[in-house]
Write a structure and sequence with these properties.
The chain is 28% helix and 29% strand. The protein is built from five helices and six strands; from the N terminus they run βββαβααββαα. The protein starts with a strand and ends in a 5-residue tail after the last helix.
């Protein structure tokens, strides 16, 4: 039995929630996600909140998947909004880091991250990605490269706040 809820929250974002209970009476599992692009180029398993890729995974602790290219622009606006709210320096639109992100956007494919418990005190990390990073991590990399005190700190925290 599976129940799904999808609620649009922004023009290209949605929140999805799926509750799944298998027939062999194992405990129910809750799958949730946010800021999923509704871009039609994304596979159903990402855009629709379908937990199908997770079935049969044993001891799954964390799972995240995205189409990194389309998420670059979405995350740019979200991270800039947080910088405004917290009175921090914006990542300049004409900076080398921002230009690099925009140029890399069409070249980036899917990114999938999973964390599984492989032993009583051991976790296994798996990442499948075009460049080894997801969209948010690429934004952090660009922010770090733009730091006025590179290689120390991030531009967000070290540059003077925008007025």
């Amino acid at each position: 039995m599976e129940h799904q809820l999808a609620r649009p929250c922004l023009e290209r974002c949605a929140h999805h929630l799926a509750l799944s209970r298998s027939r062999n009476r194992e405990s129910p599992r809750l799958y949730s996600g946010r800021f999923v692009s509704l871009d039609r180029r994304e596979p159903r398993s990402v855009a629709g909140g379908n937990p199908a890729p997770l079935r049969g995974t044993v001891n799954l602790v964390y799972y995240q998947t995205e189409q990194t290219g389309p998420r670059i622009e979405d995350d740019f606006f979200i991270t800039q909004l947080f910088r405004i709210v917290f009175h921090k320096a914006q990542l300049p639109a004409a900076s080398a880091g921002t230009v690099w992100l925009k140029k890399a956007e069409p070249l980036l494919g899917a990114s999938t991250t999973s964390l599984t418990q492989t032993g009583p005190a051991q976790l296994g990390f798996t990442r499948r990605s075009t460049v080894g990073l997801n969209a948010l991590e690429l934004h952090l990399l660009a922010d770090w490269l733009e730091s006025p005190q590179f290689p120390h700190g991030l531009n967000t925290f070290l540059a003077p706040p925008d007025q």
